[in-house]
Amino acid sequence: MGTSRFVTVALHGGRSAALSAASGFIAGMTAHGITCLLAEEHFHTLESAGQVKALTPETERLSELVVVFGGDGSILRAAEWALPLDLPVLGVNLGHVGFLAELESHEAGSLISHVVERNYTVEERMTIDTVITDRDGAEVWRSFAINEVSIEKLARERMIEVLVRVDGRALSRWGTDGVLLATPTGSTAYAFSANGPVLWPDIDALLVVPLSAHALFSRPMVIGPHSTVSVEILPGNETQAVVWCDGRRTTDISGGMVVTAEVGEHRLRLARITERPFVERLVRKFALPVDGWRGIAERNNPC
């Protein structure tokens, strides 16, 4: 008899589509002798779907994979838990863009066989470790980010004054609405809507994107993976600011405090079923006009 297998199932609990998809997946896993692990919030809703166990500090270490039913927000929540355990995450998109997801909802039928046969590869993505220190250099907060560390003003009517340093050397001072420190994964999230460049996910780099900066030099910058970037809220600045990591973990900061970011200790592991190139994913998710209006005109008027 083979060794027992366990797969963690995570989902957007408020969506009937997610509950239905997760229920079908659990039934399929049960038919192949695989136990699904569920967080307490979903356990009683889905325990009748098949062979399940509660997700605990003891059982979580048995898991070989995390399967997520939902959008990018659900995948980020699951990845936050999976990251320190070095577990691969496989997302089934039930949201809007679903850039982190591997499958769309209509493709979920093939999921069971791929998981049973372990027919997937694992793609690794860099993360960010961030530390906040006070005026005296003492650490006051620490977290990580898969997409971005966002430093934003709290008061709508005032900018924050920041000094950006790379490897301890001053780079530029900005009056700004905020600063994003993003991963290549996050380059297609918040940084994308702030006019930052799209970075291919196999690159290790820190992306620095100022938000509406009042300065002569305020271009997005791509910093090498061995560098450290820091953003100081300049002393005497009356405006309070807030730091968000992936829009999930947050703390307030004030003048004299410094936010430091570098490549993270842990890497996000995404399970991939297809060898779909990133450019294809980019075109499909953003519905990019590959033909453009000129190409459409030429096709409609071949002469």
Instruction: Give the uncertain stretches in residue-range form.
Output: none
**Structural class of the helix and strand makeup?**
alpha+beta
**Beta-strand level of the residues, as a percent range?**
35-45%
Largest sheet: 6 strands, parallel
Please report the distance between the alpha carbons of the first and last residues.
Answer: 68 Å
Compute the CA-based radius of gyration: 22 Å
Total helical elements: 7
Global morphology: globular
Spatial ordering of strands, largest sheet: 3-2-1-4-5-6
> Total strand count, please?
20
Overall pLDDT score: 91
**What is the share of helical residues?**
10-25%
Query: What pattern of helices and strands is seen along the backbone?
Result: EHEHEEHEEHEEEEEEEHEEEEEEEHH
Q: What can you see in these coordinates?
A:
The protein is an alpha+beta fold. 20% of the residues lie in helices and 36% in strands. It has helices at 16-31, 40-46, 72-82, 111-116, 190-193, 278-286, 292-300, and strands at 5-11, 34-38, 52-54, 63-70, 89-93, 103-104, 121-125, 128-133, 139-145, 148-153, 160-166, 169-176, 178-182, 206-211, 221-223, 229-233, 241-245, 249-253, 258-263, 268-272. Strands 3-2-1-4-5-6 form a 6-stranded parallel sheet, with helices on both faces. Strand 1 (5-11), helix 1 (16-31) and strand 2 form a beta-alpha-beta unit.
